[in-house]
Amino acid sequence: MRAASILVCDDDAEIAGPLEEALGTSGYRVKSAGTMEEAKSLLVKWVPDLILLDVIAPELSEAGWELLKWIRDRGCIPVILVSALNRADDRVRGLRAGADDFISKPFNLEEVLARVEAVLRRCQPESTISGLELRIDDLRKQVSIEGRTISLSPKEYQLLKLLASSPGRVFTADEILYELWPPKADTDVRTYADAQDVQKYVYLLRKKLEIDPQEPKLVLTVRGFGYRLGD
Fold first, then answer.
1. Per-residue DSSP letters for the chain?
2. What is the domain count for the chain?
3. From CA 29, how far away is CA 173, in angstroms rounded?
4. CATH number of the CATH domain containing 212
5. Which of 42, 145, 159, 225 minimizes the number of CB atoms within 10 Å of its CB?
6. What does the alpha-carbon distance between residue 187 and residue 119 come to, in Å, rounded to a whole number?
7. Same domain, 104 and 169
8. Per-residue pLDDT of the chain (231 residues; tens, 9 = 90+)
9. Which range of residues forms the domain containing residue 199?
């Protein structure tokens, strides 16, 4: 089963480095971005389970706040703000802007790990699609519909979790490929999966979730664009 993935957005290598190392040692898959542009470039083709986002003093730059708004406009990925700002109004601004938690610098790595675990646990995808309650328990890697447990393979689980990360959003075949079959380190080369593999796992997922896989109500095809969860 895949480990939860985390994007660390911080331009301070002395802070980002130890943070990435601690998260990796704890079993998370970690990527980093030092600028808003790098973060956006990653997030266009990859959907992490959580983002640790640094925001600096508003009088110096609005980049961190702009990125938080951009993330929220695209979906509901959990975001923990990490900042040297420690005023109550800054924390309130962050939470009202859509952050799920706020950590002040300097921080204790164990506290960060505990907060990451808590936010991931609290933000397990759960939604109603086509009138049915869908629950994804990422800690136990379990999926249920209307209380009925569904047994999924790792790839089927990853596909469903990706679609459920932003209900209603259409995910392209390329986005699904990038998440389920990520390229080798430091390359964009993916030689062992293509759009047909995406279609295969959509088909397999429908067989397990749908009452009638030939008339899907849960995992929908948006012709010419990609796939999304039903309303």
1. -PPPEEEEE-S-HHHHHHHHHHHHHTT-EEEEESSHHHHHHHHHH---SEEEEE---TTT--HHHHHHHHHHHH----EEEEES---HHHHHHHHHTT-SEEEESS--HHHHHHHHHHHHHHT--EEEETTEEEEEETTTTEEEETTEEE---HHHHHHHHHHHHSTTPPBPHHHHHHHHSPPPTT-----S--HHHHHHHHHHHHHHH-SSTTS-SSEEEETTTEEEE--
2. 2
3. 22
4. 1.10.10.10
5. 225
6. 31
7. no
8. 457 889 999 888 888 888 999 999 999 999 999 888 888 888 888 878 899 998 764 444 567 788 888 888 776 788 998 887 777 887 788 888 888 898 888 888 999 999 999 888 776 655 566 667 787 776 567 788 877 889 999 999 999 988 887 778 899 999 999 888 877 655 555 557 888 999 999 999 999 998 899 999 889 999 999 999 887
9. 126-229
Against a cut of 0.85, is the pTM above it? Answer: no
> Do 32 and 16 fall within a single domain?
yes
